[in-house]
Structures are given as C-alpha cells and as structure tokens.
Amino acid sequence: MKIGILGGGQLGRMFIQEALKYDDEFHVLDPNPECSCAGISHFVKGDFNNYDDVLAFGKDKDVVTIEIEHVNAESLEALEKQGVKVVPNSGSVKIIQQKILQKSFYLENEIPSPEFQAIQNASERNFSLPFVQKMNTGGYDGKGVQIIKTEEDLQKMWDVPSVLEHLVDIDKELSVIIGINESGESQTFPVTEMVADPKLNLLDFNICPAAISGDVEDQITKIAEQFTNAIASPGLFAIELFLDKNGKVWVNETAPRLHNSGHQSQEGNANSQFEQFYRVVKNLPLADTTIFGFSGMLNLVGEENFSGKVKYEGLNEVMKLPQTYIHLYGKTDTKPGRKMGHINVLANSREELLEKLTHIKSLVKVKAETI
Amino acid sequence: MKIGILGGGQLGRMFIQEALKYDDEFHVLDPNPECSCAGISHFVKGDFNNYDDVLAFGKDKDVVTIEIEHVNAESLEALEKQGVKVVPNSGSVKIIQQKILQKSFYLENEIPSPEFQAIQNASERNFSLPFVQKMNTGGYDGKGVQIIKTEEDLQKMWDVPSVLEHLVDIDKELSVIIGINESGESQTFPVTEMVADPKLNLLDFNICPAAISGDVEDQITKIAEQFTNAIASPGLFAIELFLDKNGKVWVNETAPRLHNSGHQSQEGNANSQFEQFYRVVKNLPLADTTIFGFSGMLNLVGEENFSGKVKYEGLNEVMKLPQTYIHLYGKTDTKPGRKMGHINVLANSREELLEKLTHIKSLVKVKAETI
C-alpha cells in the first residue's frame, strides 16, 4: 500500500521504522531534504502547509496521514472528496489544530477541560487572573503558550486569536493514547505520567504506569470513551491530562498523532504506539497494549549554548546498562532544546525506574562538535 | 558513520530497521534494485561477487560488512589493505565460505565437527556410506547439500570440490549466535532449537530456550569459547549444531553473519541479534541478550505451486493474537520455498509456545494473486 505522510520528523521516522515489518511503501512530504525520514522513504520536498503541495503529494496515495498537526487541513478535505483515505480525517485535524475549536469540542461533548474564554484579540479579554493564554493556531512543544499571572503580565498578552484558560493546580501531568480504526475498534494504552522540565517547557521523563488511584483511572477511562465517541475519525490520539490537587482530571489538550508521551511503549508495551498507528492507518485489527513491568523515557534535548554538528556524550556508558534502549532521530545538527532522541528504560519498580532514569540523565549530554 | 553492506536481502533490511535507532548512514550493494533494502538505504546496483564492484562500493565507507557470505573475499582483503574496516574480516569470510577450509578450521581448533573427507572431484571419494556431500562453495539454504545413502546414490554425486561428511544421528538441531567486537568483548545468545521442514530443507520453527541438559549446554559453551578464540575476527557468527542421540554436540556449520535462527530475538530477548550486530560493526559495548520467557519463530515461505505477486492469507487473524509479531521482508513476488517473512511468538511455557506456533502455521498461507 502507498502510505503518504505529511511531515518527516522523528515521529514519522519511528513509524516507518516499525512499519518496515510489513510490505508497504512510504512517501514523505517535508520542506527539509535532511529531515529524519528522507533517507528511508520516497521523499518529496514540499510544504505540508501549502494546499497545492499537499494535494499533489496525496492524490495518488492509498492513504494519507500526518505526523504533525500543523498541516493544510483544507487540502486534506479536498483529498477526501477525491476519494483518498485520510487518517485522521480532515474534520478531526481542523478541530484539534485550532485551540478555540478544540476547547469548544470538549465543552460540547462534556469532556472535562479547564474553563476558558475564546478571544480574537487581547482587548476582548474578560477572564480573571491568573490564566494561561494559548494561541489559537501554531502552538507546538510549549511554544504559543504563556502564563499571565499579574496585572503587569497583561501587557505581554499576544494580540492574536487565543484561548484564555483557567490555571489548574496541578498534582500530576498524565497522558493517554487511544487508537481508533475505521471499523470502529478502539484500544487505549495504559496511562503514563510526565515530569516536565520547567525551563525548556519540554517533556522530560515519561513513566508508565502512572501512579494513580482507581478513581482517577475511572475518570480517564470515561474521558477516553467520550473522546472516542465524539471525534468521529479513525486515528491515534494522545490526550494530555492534568490531575488537580482535589483528585479531578482535566483535559489539557489533544494531539491527533503519535506523541512523545508514548515513546516508552517501544520496549515497555506488548506493542508500541507506532505499531498501533500502523494498524489504525491500514484499518487492521488493533494491537495488544499490555505492559509487563515499569517503563520510562528520557528525552535527549540539545544542551543550552551548543549549536551545530551534534556530539553525544555518555552514550557508550548507557549502552552498557541492561534494559536500556537508545533511540536517536537521525538529526545531524543540535540546537538548545531541540529533540534529538530519547532513551527508554525498563524496571521492576517505580523506584528502580526513577533511579535508572536519573542516573542516565546524569550520564548523557547532547553537545556540539564546536560551541 | 557510513556503513556499507554487501547484500540487500531481509537480513540487511532488519539490520537497518533496528539501527534506525541510531544516526548512521547505510549503503547497500546488491544486483537487484527491488531488493529488500533498496528503499531504505543508499542503494548501489552491483555484484557483491565482483571484485571491482565491491572495491568501488567499499572504498569510501567507514566500515564494510556483509549480510550474505557469498561475496568476493579478495576484494574485502583489498579494502582492508586500503585501511577500510571490514567486519567480519576477509580471513574469517574466506574460511567460512569454503566448506573445506571451514572443516579444516574445526579440526585444527579441536572444535567437534563430524568426520569428513575433502575431495576435488567425485573420483577421489574414499569415505564410507552413508554420507552428506556438501559443495565446497555456493551452498545456501540447503542448496549444494545432498545425502548419499546407497551405492546407487553414488551416481548422483556432484563432480565438484566438496566435503563428504559423516551422517550424525540427530536428536536435535541447535544454534548459538555469538557476537565479538573489535575490542575482544564477546557475548553469546541463549541456545535455540530448530525444527526443519524436511520437504523444503528450510528452517521452520525456531525455539528459545532449547530444551537441553546442563551437560549439553556446557559442551556448547566450550565450542563457543573455542570458536571465539580461533576465528580472530570481530563479527556476529551463527553456529549451527547437531545434538546426537548419545548426547554429544557437533558443529554442522557456521555463518559469519545474521542468521534465521536468531530472528525470535527481535521480541524474545532483551536485545536482538540485529542490535548486537550493530554494536559489533561499530565496536560498541555489546548488548544484554537475556531472555524473559519462551519465544519462537515460524518462517513464512512461499507455498508450492504459487509464483508471482504475493498474497498472504490469514495475517489479519494472526494480528489479533497476543504476543505475536509479524515480520515481512518487503518482497513483492513469491515463489515456492522463498523466504518472505517470519512470525515471532512469545509464551510462558514451551508447550504454549509450540501450540501457538502450530496454530499460526495453520492460519497463514503465502500464495500469489494468480497461480
């Protein structure tokens, strides 16, 4: 089958890597000929935000999918009208890529998500401090999101269409990944727990299973069911959640694609998110997502003050550790905060897992050959 | 690092697939532009048996390796002289690719292997019936090997340089895979047990761990040590063994490369033979090869009477089974006996494993769109 992917980053690369177990043909559209997928697929240079580029790329594919949600959704709709299968469908991508539509979707479907106001510009604000401002479009990896705490902060509000959102008093950040195929079958991955690096606003450790009560698990199961029923699209969706200090779960946001919070599934689960995504894209029976023990993931991000040809420190030491798996993304150049790879770890207990992850974090540095 | 691979078949494909976890550049030399590796590497069309082709291909690589042993060994030696690292080295490839040298190697190093006579032509035979005739060069997947039982059979002896070998009264066929890096570190995979399909003379099921006594295990450990000490080359080597009905272990033959008998390590071991091979090729610390339970592998080979565009039957049913992993080789066309893929299975006991494998074997057929 000819599978077209919009975006050629690490998510696409790990998807293709997993899917090399099967006999499909992968085509990738990306503006960067040096992208992570270029050497391992039929690469097409082009802009996935450009209507014509996407249409030309997609028209002869059996299925078109995405590894980034910031794509031209109108062209996806046009492809659907031409009879090309698009997974996830254009409707779901549109909802998710615009924060205002995404929040309205939660509201309409009674999915708990923090109270909000949608604004077209800063002057429309009618929402009490403190709050989070999320740009309607273009946010990614913490970009396009800022916290407005004080009257003084109001000066730095972005004057663009945005969602202003109530600040949750966060106890834990959680994530659940759901696969839904065209036949309507759905399968949820065990919930993972994140620890963020506040400085880079990037995911740091991701741990599975999350240490949560049965009640919290029930709330998440209900959210997953509500989401699955409402989204009306096949796809792999990552729902990022906040558990507040009163034990209530809120949806932060959803990604209509493979997600950083699912990387530990590569070795930690019976099947990974990449395998599940493959099955979703091809409308195959969904995969078993069982976990056998404790697993966790550490992102490898470019160190501050280093740019240029990447030079990893400590990887040989990490290779000597049992139940430890390095995944690099085929990126030649590093820059501060750039996601260059990750390391997955298996363990027999949460304590052992956190110890291993912390030790590995102390070993590895993502620097550059010259500063 | 620029890694050059001679051969673009499934072994190379699964090697590259695994190594996509790292940041290297893979170049493949194969005569067939439709080979399993073509779409996922820098492909060079050429003959790995041709001196000039191999030399031209290898000269600008950081390391040259093989996924098939029937390559031009003189060109590997020439590359070594030019300073290109070759893993496994040309000396070990030469020994293994010629059955007469291989048998002499065992004899010299006191590695137990069945009694034999080396002949240049049929008239030189001075070896009592029954015996196995193995052509000196070119044997593969059971080709170039025949059993001579009776005086009448002598008529069909091949009149070419060969090894005539004593027939072992086989209780079990076993295999052990050893990784040796340039630094001298070596690591052995747990022994696997094979069940062959007598009709196709192809590996059928491969099971890990093998059901063998401590004494047999000791014999194999000793063989592995003798081999490692004698071969004088980094590499991943698969030693195929016979356990005879008196409990003695004999070396059947060795492959200086990734091997079909190690495929179940993809999900059955902490790290697969492909990961280990990567570390050998790059002289990195070797990987942990621990097994967690029982694992097995079923080859998917083209059914008799079907040739042409492949059409698999039953794969969707297999996808519904837990702890079951399909691996196809990206081959468009099937023919009788062609290795098209394999299926790995995990289980909690040997009985459960054999039951699952037998069930899966009954589900899957490798046919063609038209007969």
Automatic annotation (TrEMBL), chains A, B:
| One Pfam family per UniProt | PurK_C
Keywords annotated in UniProt: ATP-binding, Ligase, Nucleotide-binding, Purine biosynthesis
Task: Give me the segments passing through the membrane.
Answer: none
What are the binding positions for ATP in this chain? 99, 134, 165-168, 173, 252-253
Q: Which InterPro entries match?
A: ATP-grasp, ATP-grasp_carboxylate-amine, ATP_grasp_subdomain_1, PreATP-grasp_dom_sf, PurK, PurK_C, PurT/PurK_preATP-grasp, Rudment_hybrid_motif
Q: Which GO terms describe its biological process?
A: 'de novo' IMP biosynthetic process
Q: Which PROSITE patterns match?
A: ATP_GRASP
Protein's UniProt keywords contain rRNA-binding:
no
Which EC numbers characterise this protein's activity in its record?
6.3.4.18
Reactions catalysed, as given in the entry: 5-amino-1-(5-phospho-beta-D-ribosyl)imidazole + hydrogencarbonate + ATP = 5-carboxyamino-1-(5-phospho-D-ribosyl)imidazole + ADP + phosphate + 2 H(+)
GO MF annotation list: 5-(carboxyamino)imidazole ribonucleotide synthase activity; ATP binding; metal ion binding; phosphoribosylaminoimidazole carboxylase activity
Q: What does this protein do?
A: Catalyzes the ATP-dependent conversion of 5-aminoimidazole ribonucleotide (AIR) and HCO(3)(-) to N5-carboxyaminoimidazole ribonucleotide (N5-CAIR). Catalyzes the ATP-dependent conversion of 5-aminoimidazole ribonucleotide (AIR) and HCO(3)- to N5-carboxyaminoimidazole ribonucleotide (N5-CAIR).
Record HAMAP family: PurK
Assembly state and interactors? Homodimer.
> Could you identify this protein by its name?
N5-carboxyaminoimidazole ribonucleotide synthase
What is the protein's species of origin?
Answer: Chryseobacterium manosquense
Tell me the name of the encoding gene: purK
